[in-house]
């Protein structure tokens, strides 16, 4: 069955208690927790057990379940380590910190962690960057699995997986890797939804927001992503997972007077109708 989550970053700054409480008041069953402003990655690495206890208590007190820990890149000291990083020593240090993060996620009660798909290292070229990322992601899948956590990455417009065919290739190269799929990253650059739909069979978690060609995070009514077809296909795949509403204002959205709360609720309402249509 499909559940609905809300990204903790959607509505701006606040204490973890305020953020969890507000998202619960909006009627969400699950929460996706980011690692920058809500539960900081550096705090997790420093003391996984204490942070897991803190987040588990928050989840229980507010009656909201933990879906995905939105991690991105893993940091080592003051350096963000790309999964396409060619330096084996740096990658090995990163695995140590990633194992701590996985331990935290397991103890807290998360379903999954979302990491980085990797970016192009110019001096290495695309193919070598891709191969390094595949090797690294495969190792991270195993570390997460050993801790009882699913590991996902997001094929994004700024990553090595910025076209659907490359994301399919990576899923085959890094055995066990699953995706947190956000159709915005392909729609905004004009990729066919028929092509991006092929990633659904490799998807463990999803983000939902609207977009149009050349217009990321457009207002719901201008959106070109066909969620009817997506939900219908998920039903055919018997997909069991969480769809997270992910919408926060950048400078353009803020200047346009757009409301993240309105966009979140509109999207959830639309998806609930589609679930009723295809799941009964």
UniProtKB/TrEMBL annotation:
Organism: Paenibacillus foliorum
Xylose isomerase-like TIM barrel domain mapped to chain residues: 22-254
Protein name: Xylose isomerase-like TIM barrel domain-containing protein
InterPro entries cross-referenced by the UniProt entry: IolE/XylAMocC-like, Xyl_isomerase-like_sf, Xyl_isomerase-like_TIM-brl
Alphabetized Pfam families for the sequence: AP_endonuc_2 (PF01261)
